[in-house]
What does this fold into?
Amino acid sequence: MRSGRRLGVDVGRARIGIAVCDRDGLIATPVETVRRDDKTDIARIVAIADEYDVLELVVGLPLSMSGGDTPSTTDARVFAAALAAHRPVRMVDERMSTVTAQRGLHQAGRNTKKSRAVIDQAAAVIILQHALDHERSSGAPPGATLPG
It folds into this structure.
């Protein structure tokens, strides 16, 4: 397992959920939800990455259930490429992360419609935690690295 913090990123059309892990890569925790805005979103995420001194960004890749691309997949790839100009980026499969986050909040008694920003952060936690668990169990970094 590589040492260093990582930032989990759940890219949505309106909001971007952000999570971070500890330096040992054991546990992911929510950080904030960034409003999707062509003028400020990348800068805000880079600032968060600077604040936490992260090794890399782990961006969720929303594939269809069959593993194919969707319009959201293309959007996430374009967004991740913009981030890769500033920091190392890994893209990881995020199928069902938002659904899992919504289910968990619903089971905790939270109204999902009123908790959208929290859902985005929870999805980022799920994406990052899955990547950390994969690396810990396989010994190999998860997903694919984007060129910077």
